[in-house]
């Protein structure tokens, strides 16, 4: 779907789009809230003052549980997928390592398909398998499209949302004035999510785009058909023509909230409403439950993950004081 064009793209997207309608996302909200609350309870059990890596204890487990629930990934397969999907987004792997990882990815997807074919559930994997098995006169999925679509859903749902939770918590803790606006209600948690997506998009650069026709740019340059394109969402989101002279500043009260973090046009991220719901819920519950939350290391010592695609930290060490 991510790289398909025209009628093929529409057919593939139509198949999964209903799962992301406003109604379906609203139905998922109680489950997302309950999953976030469970993680908060686990955090609350950590002894006062002990350093916790929030990337490990919140940013990862919440999206993995949500997409695992949506796709019907059995609990015992979730950790393997996490490792494999991390590698998919890691642009520092050698070609051999990347190829070995792809093989593992397909093996795990086939295993998931076999599990769900034997025991279908109320999940998207079972729906996609049914769409494949119906062989509905070209309207369903081909044998290759079934695993590819599942890989897209699982990888898109795993890694990206992790980075937005990480960046939103980090930026709030590193900018007490901005956090104050969120806590006082002068800015909503949804505003915090949008500004994080703008200033620190989870996908800095998106590879795997190719020009289908010649594309003439406003400055006269031409990208010729077939050339690869690396979409630089991070740069676009901080362009002064769009967001003014203070485009680099993190400002949750910003009036113009537009950004390209979810892409643009017919390929616009299908999971955007789900991702927004997850991150806003994580922030709301985290700052409610731990009013004294603080970074456990100077902000400038946190290291980015070493890939040109994703935009997160290797670790997010915090102290979880409950008192304000
Ligand atoms: C904050 C988290 C997320 C970010 C930053 C993000 C970002 C993106 C981006 C940049 C694209 C490409 C858009 C383009 O080519 O113009 C995309 C596509 C897509 N995303 Fe997301 N995504 C996120 C979460 C999710 C989630 C949770 C899911 C599913 C559960 C998902 C499913 C998809 C799918 C299926 C596509 C392909 C759409 C198409 O090609 O028609 N994403 N996403």
CATH architecture term? Orthogonal Bundle
**Outline type:** globular
Q: Strand-residue fraction?
A: 5-15%
Q: What is the CATH superfamily label?
A: Cytochrome P450
Mean pLDDT: 92
How would you characterize the largest beta sheet? 3 strands, antiparallel
Q: Tell me, what is the CATH class?
A: Mainly Alpha
Give the helix level as a range of percent. Answer: 40-55%
Could you say which structural class the secondary elements and strand pairing correspond to?
Answer: mainly alpha
Kindly report how far apart the N and C termini lie: 46 Å
Description:
The protein is mainly alpha-helical. It has one domain (6-202, 258-297, 304-318): Orthogonal Bundle (Cytochrome p450). The chain is 54% helix and 8% strand. The chain contains 13 helices and seven strands. The chain has helices at 6-16, 22-44, 54-59, 61-71, 75-88, 95-118, 124-133, 145-174, 176-184, 189-199, 233-237, 240-243, 272-289, and strands at residues 51-53, 205-210, 215-216, 222-223, 228-232, 292-295, 317-321. It has a three-stranded antiparallel sheet with strand order 1-7-6. Strands 2-5 form a two-stranded antiparallel ribbon. Strands 3-4 form a two-stranded antiparallel sheet. Helix 2 (22-44) runs parallel beside helix 13 (272-289). The termini are far apart. 32% of the residues are buried. The protein binds protoporphyrin IX containing FE (HEM). Residues 1-2, 13, 67, 152-153, 156-157, 160-161, 164, 202-203, 206, 261-264, 267-271, 274-275 line the site of protoporphyrin IX containing FE.
């Amino acid at each position: 779907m991510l790289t398909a064009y025209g009628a093929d793209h529409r057919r593939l997207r139509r198949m999964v789009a209903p799962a992301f309608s406003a109604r379906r996302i609203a139905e998922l909200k109680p489950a997302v809230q309950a999953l976030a609350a469970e993680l908060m309870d686990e955090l609350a059990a950590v002894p006062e003052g002990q350093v916790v890596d929030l990337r490990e204890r919140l940013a990862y487990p919440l999206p993995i549980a949500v997409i695992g629930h949506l796709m019907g990934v059995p609990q015992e397969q979730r950790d393997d997928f996490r490792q494999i999907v991390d590698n998919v987004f890691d642009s520092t792997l050698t070609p051999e390592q990347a190829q070995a990882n792809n093989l593992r990815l397909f093996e795990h997807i086939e295993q998931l398909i076999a599990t769900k074919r034997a025991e279908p559930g109320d999940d998207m994997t079972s729906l996609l398998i049914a769409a494949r098995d119906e062989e509905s006169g070209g309207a369903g999925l081909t044998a290759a499209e079934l695993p590819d679509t599942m890989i897209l859903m699982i990888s898109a749902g795993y890694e990206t949302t992790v980075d937005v939770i990480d960046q939103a918590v980090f930026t709030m803790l590193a900018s007490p004035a901005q956090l104050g606006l969120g806590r006082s209600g002068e800015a909503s948690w949804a505003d915090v999510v949008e500004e994080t997506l703008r200033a620190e998009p989870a996908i800095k650069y998106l590879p795997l785009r190719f020009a289908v026709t010649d594309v003439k740019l406003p400055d006269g340059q031409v990208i010729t058909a077939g050339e690869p394109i690396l979409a630089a969402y991070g740069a676009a989101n901080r362009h002064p023509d769009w967001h003014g002279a203070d485009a680099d500043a993190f400002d949750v009260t910003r009036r113009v909230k537009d950004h390209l973090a979810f892409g643009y046009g017919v390929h616009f991220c299908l999971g955007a409403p789900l991702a927004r719901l997850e991150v806003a819920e994580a922030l709301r519950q985290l700052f409610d439950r731990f009013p004294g939350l603080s970074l456990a290391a100077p902000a400038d010592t946190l290291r980015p993950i070493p890939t040109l695609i994703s935009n997160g930290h290797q670790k997010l060490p915090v102290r979880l004081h409950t008192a304000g």
